[in-house]
Design brief:
Elements lengths: L10 E7 L3 H8 L2 H7 L12 E5 L4 E10 L3 E6 L3 E10 L2 E9 L13 H24 L4
C-alpha cells in the first residue's frame, strides 16, 4: 500500500496454523467462528452483506467487500478500516495473513480515541489475544 499524507501503515500479521485451510476458512468466514475467536457479530459470507461487530467500545457497521472461498475475505469495519484475511494451503497447514488497513490521522467517531492510539492497541491486540485465540480454535486447543 502506498501511504498518503495523513495515513499510517497497515497492520500486517502473518501466522501459520497447524490446521487444514477449510477449517481455518470456516473459523474466519462464519458468524459462529468469528464470535469464538474475535467478537460477537452477525456476519454472513455473502458479497455486499452488511453486518456488525460488537467490541467493548462500540457496535461497528461492516460490509463484505470481497470473498473468494477458501482463500480470501475482505470486509470494511466501521468508517475507515479494511480487514483482509488471506489463506494459503500448505498440505495440512495453513498460512494466514491478516491486513488491517485504513489508518488515517483522525479521532475515531464512535470512541473518541485517536487512530494513532487505536492502531497501537489493535497492533498489540492482534498479537497478544486475537490471533492466539484463532490459533487455539483452529488447532483444537480451545
Amino acid at each position: 500500500m502506498t501511504n498518503h499524507p495523513g495515513t499510517m501503515p497497515d497492520i500486517v500479521k502473518e501466522i501459520e496454523f497447524n490446521a487444514p485451510i477449510q477449517k481455518v476458512w470456516d473459523a474466519v468466514s462464519t458468524a459462529e467462528g468469528i464470535a469464538t475467536w474475535f467478537m460477537p457479530n452477525d456476519f454472513e459470507p455473502v458479497l455486499g452483506h452488511k453486518f456488525t461487530i460488537t467490541s467493548a467500545y462500540a457496535v461497528s457497521p461492516c460490509e463484505v467487500l470481497e470473498i473468494n472461498p477458501p482463500k480470501k475475505l475482505v470486509f470494511s469495519w466501521g468508517e475507515d478500516w479494511i480487514i483482509t484475511f488471506e489463506l494459503t494451503a500448505m498440505e495440512e497447514r495453513t498460512a494466514f495473513t491478516l491486513t488491517h488497513g485504513g489508518w488515517v490521522d483522525k479521532v475515531a467517531p464512535d470512541t473518541g480515541i485517536p487512530y494513532s492510539v487505536a492502531r497501537e492497541r489493535m497492533n498489540g491486540g492482534w498479537d497478544s489475544s486475537v490471533l492466539p485465540a484463532l490459533k487455539k480454535y483452529v488447532e483444537g486447543l480451545a
